[in-house]
Amino acid sequence: MYDLNINVHLYIYMNENLRENIIKTASNVFAHYGYAKTSIEQIAKELRKSKTVIYYYFKNKYELFEAVVDNEANQLKQKIEEEIKKQCKASEKLKCYIQIRMKELKKLINIYKALKDEYFDGIPEVNKIRRKFDEEETQYIKNILREGIKTKEFKIKNLDLTSLAIVTAMKGLELPLLTHENINLEKRLNYLCNILFYGIINKE
Length: 204
Description:
Layout: H1 4-33, H2 40-47, H3 51-57, H4 61-84, H5 90-105, H6 109-116, H7 124-150, H8 159-178, H9 185-197
Helix pairs in contact: 1-2, 1-4, 4-5, 4-7, 5-7, 5-8, 5-9, 7-8, 8-9
């Protein structure tokens, strides 16, 4: 007997798999050529599909780039979550977040370019990506700090400002940390953590 449901599920699976392949291929092409020099034609050629296939899933290059950046952001979140789960204290979770975030961000070329490349300044679609990343990051830091307050590890008067200050400090260190190959990243990040902890760790 012909089972329509099997074919429907197979169709959905194949479509999802193809979308993932498009994003993966586009990620490599964007990383190699940069956003400005990448075209849908190049991505289609690398994918060995027609442009029509890509346009079926994505309206334009901006939308595809956003999917690529979202995918890299999810990879970053997953890696951070894996490492933070190994920590018990809020102070160790915060330190782990900062270290993993900075180390892994360097590997995710497209999201880093979206956040930092001046070429994207003023482009609404990319500004939306930046705001979303900043908001999620600030909220994540805030959750860790809130946990530390409950366990009396942290003594914080203004949770919102402290979260924002930590995110700002990380963003300020991105350029020198991620563009120089010969620096001691571990040492710099430990120093950053020590500075951040001074005044928020409750020594009472």
